Amino acid sequence: MMCHEYEERLSAFYDGELDRTKVPELMTHLAGCSSCRTFLASLASIQRAEMSMNTAEVPATLDERVRRLAAHRPGRPARFRDAAFAIWKRRFALPVPAIGIFAVVVLWAGLLLWSEAERASVTPPAAETQIIYVMEMPPVVVQGTVNGNTR
Amino acid sequence: MTDDRLVQALQQGDSAALGVIYARYKVQLFGYCESLLRDRTTAEDAVHDAFLALTNRCREIRSPDALRSWLFAVARNNVMMILRRNRRLVDVDEEAPSAEEDPLDRLVRVEEGEALETSLGRLPMHYREVLLLRHREGMSYAAIAVVTGDTVEAIRARLFKARKALMRAAAAVVDERKLP
Q: Does any CB of chain B come closer than 8 Å to the CB of residue A62?
């Protein structure tokens, strides 16, 4: 194994995240490699330097904004505007705003078609239309006597 | 009070719990967001929106002991959205120091003991992020993986590369300090 590979293991070892079975081999290499010992010392330097870096100063305006959030009952939207904006910004698997707009358009088109159909069904017949009724009459049998013969 | 109890209290409607959680994590979260965004105003928005999400979605937290990872993951999502919105998602690996920056001014800043911050600032965002979460927040690889959405193996490799890159950047800063 090259030093580069040992360095990667050293990085994990320094964080306490190296598989225990790999530690003995690493220690053996470390004992004979000044370059890797320097690398390990550098890791400690990075840790010390990062810990000594100035911590960020939180703006007072953020304190105030979150205090206003806390004034509302958790578990419910704090303010309609904030909640609506949060929903808009939230990443969904589907583009919810686009689907919502599409649904509204489809609903509107459906209502338009339905109202047109309703209007057509109640329209009275035109004045010049003739209605013809056909009745079927039963046959009429007439009986009488003509010149002495019954017919 | 433990995070576990705080999340339970929040889920039961105890608004004071939000204030306690904020007081506990505000510095860490703001430092994290500011480090990624390099802008205090947008970092403030990212942290605020993370607590807004906690207010509205606290019932979704299934594992209350993972509150810190949950908060960092939500803050990270907010940061990514801000970066996408601002179209500033550039690979800062290739970023050179600003041409408008006065070299003397840069030297003074280095002399003021900001060498590490200068070096960190030259790293790509995904390197800065893992260094910050590991060294300053003391997160395990598994916790960092939860925040970033990567695997533990990917975090292990990235952290190593980030450290090597930081060492190279620090060497460059030291060289600059030697400039007349």
A: yes
- Two structure tokens written together for A22: 């790999």
C-beta of residue A43 within 8 angstroms of C-beta of residue A10: yes
Q: Is the pLDDT of residue B102 over 80?
A: no
| Predicted pLDDT of residue A91 | 56
Q: How many CB pairs under 8 A join A and B?
A: 119
Dihedral sign computed on CA atoms, order B163, B164, B165, B166: positive
Whether residues B44 and A15 touch (CB distance < 8 A) is answered with no
Contacts 24+ apart (CB under 8 A), B164-171: B164/A7, B165/B93, B165/B123, B165/B124, B165/B127, B166/A46, B166/B119, B166/B120, B166/B123, B166/B127, B166/B131, B167/A42, B167/A46, B169/B118, B169/B119, B169/B120, B169/B122, B169/B123, B170/B115, B170/B116, B170/B119
Task: Specify the higher pLDDT residue, B53 or B60.
Answer: B53
Query: What is the mean pLDDT of each successive set of 10 residues along chain A, which is 151 residues long?
Result: 87 91 91 90 82 78 86 56 60 71 92 87 64 76 71 61
Cα separation values, B86 from A67, A88, B19, B165, Å: 27, 17, 30, 26
With CB atoms and an 8 Å threshold, state whether A62 touches B34: no
Does the pLDDT at position B88 exceed 90?
A: no
Q: Which pTM does this prediction carry?
A: 0.63
Give the mean pLDDT of B87-97. 46
CB A46 within 8 A of CB B127: no
Q: Which of B44, B77, B116 sits opposite A53 (nearest CB)?
A: B116
How confident is the model over B103-115, as a mean pLDDT?
Answer: 49
For testing contact with chain A, the best of B56, B74, B117, B153 (most A CBs within 10 A): B56
A5 has a chain B CB within 8 A of its CB = no
